[in-house]
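Re: [ENG-882] Designed sequences occasionally contain unexpected residues at chain ends

Forwarding the minimal case from QA. Structure tokens:
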């Protein structure tokens, strides 16, 4: 980076999971047969009139409150531009009076990122370009699906407060977790429920901000980080070879791993914004805002803190596991399991790594009992994982009973000792090297003992027995 720093501000579009669209009664549904969820309003036929969806406003207010925004009197504007995926030739959006403004988002590491605004708008239709690279240039033909046209969006615009691709990624991950937690969206980036535009510029520290480029429509955390890192290096190279950065919109080519120019940047006045004459101003009452505030669920940060209070927070691996548990919404299960006796560290680890958040979860009692059995040495780690996997089919089964059905009778100390003697006898060379100090062979012996006992031996017990015989 040659002493340059990267400056990043993000615009995140989030589809709200309302039953119907923002201004009409058409279903808001991803993946339906194209052009089946359309009506005169959402395809912009003359004479049709928009009616605002109250539920969408409620979701937008939840988002504003969760991001510590001021929620205020606002109105809708027409943003005029011509594109085939927008049949009205204007998008109903918010302009100088957004519903939510001046908020903050705190990253898990404590860094605070400013939120400029979080405003409401309608989504466009979706175009698919056939032939060529999938972009409109060089395509043979284009298909348009208006099912998405008029789907409610909230656009969350950050301040230019981020300084690396990794930090931008952490911001979107945290934002996504917040949006999902408040129930406003399903957060499925791969389905386009969340789409990110990244504004990137570079500067020498202490200098004013440089000219930015905006990378459009990043739809995974990985592409977001890669695109920002590529773009920052591209700008540094350009500046170092004496070029000027021109403000433009760029696209990210995932295969090639590079950004390319799309078009020069529109100015606000290109859009000829004016107040939407078919809608009254949006003036949520204080009582309504307070009612929404008081019904907000716990946010990810608070939920992580609840779990962290139960484990060793000085361990960075544990902090990651806690984040995973909350991300997958397994934290209630873990907290209840701990309350009924499961050791917290183990419950967090097993929940993060073994439970399928989207699938069937074990009952609290069964999950807690499995962790307790493992902690007590009654199940080896491998066996405990197998019991958790089996609980998917019988979430309420007694893990003791499951373990015996799976043949996980723990070996008695005597029979483990005998097996170890046999394995040592059959591998005398390796044993003398192990005794002579070749520690790598521990794994070899554990493997042999596991094979001989069909995985029933407890790994910790095997190590203890090996150590005892080595000295
Ligand atoms: P526009 O409406 O033209 O997209 P905004 O002023 O609303 O422009 O800014 C859009 C985004 O660009 C915001 O997220 C903001 O933080 C970011 N941004 C503004 N200036 C810079 C800059 N010099 N470098 C990087 N990001 C920037
Ligand atoms: Mg923009
Ligand atoms: Zn409609």
């Amino acid at each position: 980076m040659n002493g340059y720093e990267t400056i990043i501000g993000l615009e995140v579009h989030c589809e709200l999971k309302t039953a119907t669209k923002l201004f009409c009664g058409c279903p808001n549904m991803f993946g339906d047969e194209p052009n089946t969820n359309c009506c005169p309003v959402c395809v912009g036929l003359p004479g049709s009139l928009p009616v605002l969806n109250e539920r969408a406003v409620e979701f937008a207010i939840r988002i504003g409150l969760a991001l510590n925004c001021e929620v205020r009197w606002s109105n809708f504007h027409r943003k005029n531009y011509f594109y085939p995926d927008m049949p009205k030739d204007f998008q109903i959006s918010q302009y100088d009076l957004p519903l939510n403004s001046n908020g903050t988002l705190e990253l898990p590491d404590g860094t605070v990122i400013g939120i400029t605004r979080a405003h409401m708008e309608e989504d466009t239709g979706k175009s698919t370009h056939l032939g060529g690279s999938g972009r409109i240039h060089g395509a043979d033909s284009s298909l348009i699906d208006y099912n998405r046209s008029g789907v409610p969006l909230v656009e969350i615009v950050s301040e230019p407060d981020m300084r690396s691709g990794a930090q931008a990624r952490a911001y979107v991950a945290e934002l996504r977790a917040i949006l999902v937690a408040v129930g406003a969206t399903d957060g499925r980036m791969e389905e386009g429920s969340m789409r990110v535009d990244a504004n990137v510029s570079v500067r020498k520290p202490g200098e004013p901000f440089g000219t930015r480029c905006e990378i459009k429509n990043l739809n995974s955390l990985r592409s977001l980080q890669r695109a920002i890192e590529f773009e920052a290096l591209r700008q540094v190279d350009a500046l170092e070879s004496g070029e000027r950065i021109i403000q433009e919109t760029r696209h990210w080519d995932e295969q090639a791993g590079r950004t390319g120019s799309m078009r020069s940047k529109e100015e606000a006045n290109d859009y000829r914004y004016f107040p939407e004459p078919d809608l009254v101003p949006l003036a949520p009452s204080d009582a309504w805002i307070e009612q929404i505030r008081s019904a907000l669920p716990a946010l990810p940060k608070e939920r992580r803190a609840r779990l962290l209070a139960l484990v060793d927070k000085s361990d960075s691996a544990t902090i990651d596991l806690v984040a995973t548990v909350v991300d997958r919404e397994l934290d209630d299960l873990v907290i209840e399991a701990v309350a009924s006796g499961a050791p917290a560290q183990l419950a967090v680890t097993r929940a993060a790594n073994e439970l399928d958040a989207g699938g069937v979860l074990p009952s609290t009692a069964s999950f807690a009992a499995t962790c307790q059995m493992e902690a007590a040495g009654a199940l080896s780690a491998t066996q405990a994982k197998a019991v958790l996997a089996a609980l998917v089919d019988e979430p309420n089964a007694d893990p003791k009973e499951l373990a015996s059905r799976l043949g996980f009778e723990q070996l008695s100390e005597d029979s483990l000792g005998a097996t170890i003697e046999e394995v040592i006898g059959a591998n005398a060379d390796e044993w003398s090297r192990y005794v002579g100090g070749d520690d790598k062979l521990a794994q070899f012996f554990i493997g042999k003992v596991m094979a001989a006992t069909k995985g029933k031996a407890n790994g910790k017990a095997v190590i203890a027995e090996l150590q005892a015989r080595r000295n």
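QA comment: On inspection the terminal residues look reasonable. The CA atoms of residues 201 and 211 lie 6 Å apart. Proposing we downgrade this to a documentation issue.
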